Amino acid sequence: MARQKQARLLEIYRIHANLADQVSNRREGANRLYVSLLVGLLSVLAIVIRFGPVGVVEWELFVLVGLFGSLLSLSWWGVIQSYRQLNREKFRVMRDLEEKLPFQFFKREWDTKGVGGKSNDYVQLTKVESHLPTLFGLFFLGIFSFGLYSACQ
């Protein structure tokens, strides 16, 4: 009976690990989407600058692109934080499940990485990942500011 219970727990653990992996894959897809949108927005701005505005005053284009890019960057940052919270809870549940298994996979891995203040070697991916939308956001805020500055000239 105990062996059957262990087998069921291991199967639940496998399913949960697979779900956590799927969340990470969705996060990666969301990151690709946002990078594509923001780079596309910059490409539109570059094309218009190169070939001249089409019925739009140039400063207005800078303001619109800067504002839209900043809002997209903020949205992207929020999506990353949401995925971070979701994964944190999924791994918390997996650690709880591991306590009932003969070998604690993630606990062992995290202990060797020094997570939890034991070492400065490990930097969570979502913390690093959050810098990219911040940098894009600052860049687009610069474009927005340039557009406003140009409007005042």
**Count of alpha and pi helical runs:** 5
Report the average pLDDT across residues.
Answer: 86
DSSP strand tally: 0
Order of helices and strands: HHHHH
* Head-to-tail CA distance between termini: 81 Å
| Strand composition percent | under 5%
The assigned structural class equals: mainly alpha
Q: Main beta sheet, described? A: none
Shape: elongated
Rg: 23 Å
| Poorly predicted segments | none
Percent helix range: over 70%
Description of the molecule:
83% of the residues lie in helices and 0% in strands. It has 153 residues and is an all-alpha fold. The longest helix has 50 residues, at 2-51. The model has no long low-confidence stretch (mean pLDDT 86).
Distinctive features:
153 residues; mainly alpha; 5 helices; elongated
Can I get a quick summary?
This protein is mainly α and 153 residues long. It contains five helices and no strands.
Element layout with pairings:
Elements (H helix, E strand, L loop, with lengths): L1 H50 L6 H41 L6 H9 L11 H5 L1 H22 L1
Helix pairs in contact: 1-2, 2-5
